[in-house]
Amino acid sequence: MAFVRNAWYVAGWSSEFGNDLSAVKILDENIVIYRTSTGQVIAMEDRCPHRFLSLSMGKLIGDDIQCGYHGITYNCDGLCVRIPGQKKIQKTLNVQTYPVHEQHDIVWIWMGDKSLADTSEIFDMPQFARAGWEAHQGDAIHLTSNYLNVAENLVDPAHVSFVHPTTLGSSASEDVPVHFDTSGDAIVAWRWIRDSPPIGFFKEFPGYKTNVDRWHYYYLYPPSIAVIDFGSADSKEQIEENQRHLGTQLFALHFLTPVSSNRTIDRWMHLRNVAVGDETASSKINSMFKVAFAEDKQILEAIQEQEDHLQNQNPVHISIDKGSIAYRRRIADLIKSEAADNSTM
Q1: 10 Å Cβ neighbour count for 268?
Q2: How far apart are CA 51 and CA 283, in angstroms?
Q3: Neighbours of 33 (CB within 10 A)
Q4: What tens-digit pLDDT sequence spans the chain (345 residues)?
Q5: Of 82, 120, 308, 320, which is least packed with CB atoms within 10 Å of its CB?
């Protein structure tokens, strides 16, 4: 399967990596990641060029990796610095390394042309550093599903009425039209549900008792980052669409890491404008998200099973698929553009 390579992907939360060797797979490539004695994150191909043993099966000698088969040792730049019993070191023993950057307790990795790796292009939101907002990392969902299907689910407000009827949706939104904007960097889908009972999530947090106006804004940033802006406000306040910050507003962030053609890791977190600094609130929100995302996992893995069985059959599209169609087209265009660039090198 072809992937978009010239992009920053999430390798993991910062807490996932320490001064030991971690084996990860991203875009079907085996990578070993570790921290040096100064805390710097290093990522390199998880394969010794000698006999192809995974370097993650070796050990750290200071800040260098020693292969577990014959003790051949590589430094942080992937350069071979020692061959036991041999003075001459072949240049062909060097190991590929990957640009990495740590930001907001997230480790990002660049999987494409190193000369194009610009850290200023890493996904960010002003709410990470803005007063009055709480950022809280959640969990990682391991899905037996192609990342394209997972991403489509994250630009699809229509499914919440049926997949998440007790958490993020309800029957009140079943026939509310979905709006789309596919003209910007992000593909956006949204809708408002006015003057309806609060969904399960907002009954629990912050505890709405009367009818609310609620919204879902889904932002999908190709190749694999999604932000869902959702919230509620008392219907009596009659807030406008640009006044969402006046209600209970949450951003659910999903960082999708394509592992292979049918495996994806979805690391999720949230930003909120209420209960700042309240760990009890964070735990309650986490528990509700886990229920909802487990519902998504069940659906997405069942779809993957059908796709694997049916293979060359295409789905029949309906009007709510406008966002996913635009997303698939953009991914195809990015892959095609990268292939064309590579062919001219």
Answers
A1: 21
A2: 47
A3: 25
A4: 899 999 999 999 999 999 999 999 999 999 999 999 999 999 999 999 999 999 999 999 999 999 999 999 999 999 999 999 999 998 889 999 999 999 999 999 999 999 999 999 999 999 999 999 999 999 999 999 999 999 999 999 888 888 887 778 777 778 788 999 999 999 999 999 999 999 888 888 888 899 999 999 999 999 999 999 999 999 999 999 999 999 999 999 999 999 999 999 999 999 999 999 999 999 999 999 999 999 999 999 999 999 988 877 788 999 989 999 999 999 999 999 999 887 766
A5: 120
**Model's pTM, two decimal places?**
0.94
Question: For residues 141 and 272, is the Cβ–Cβ distance under 8 A?
Answer: no
d(CA 43, CA 35): 9
CB 111 within 8 A of CB 100: no
Strands 187-196 vs 179-181: parallel, antiparallel or unpaired: antiparallel
Evaluate whether 264 touches 118 at the Cβ level (below 8 Å). Answer: no
User: How many CA atoms, within 13 angstroms, populate the side-chain half-sphere of residue 47?
Assistant: 9
- Identify any residues that bridge with 229 across adjacent strands, giving them in sequence order: 217, 251
Q: Contact 260/28 with Cβ under 8 angstroms?
A: yes
**Assigned token pair, 248:** 């209970």
Under the phi-then-psi rule, with left for phi > 0, alpha for psi from -120 to 50, and beta for the rest, what region is 226?
beta
Using CA atoms, how far apart are residues 269 and 39, in angstroms rounded to an integer?
23
Put the strands of the sheet holding 64-66 in their side by side order: 59-61, 64-66, 73-74, 80-82
CA 72, CA 58: separation in Å to the nearest integer?
Answer: 10
Q: To the nearest 10°, the Cα dihedral for 49, 52, 58, 64?
A: 10
CA–CA distance, 325 with 205 (Å, rounded to integer): 34
**What is the rounded distance in angstroms from the CA atom of residue 208 to the CA atom of residue 155?**
26
pLDDT tens digits for range 161-212: 888 877 787 777 787 889 999 999 999 999 999 999 998 888 888 888 999 9
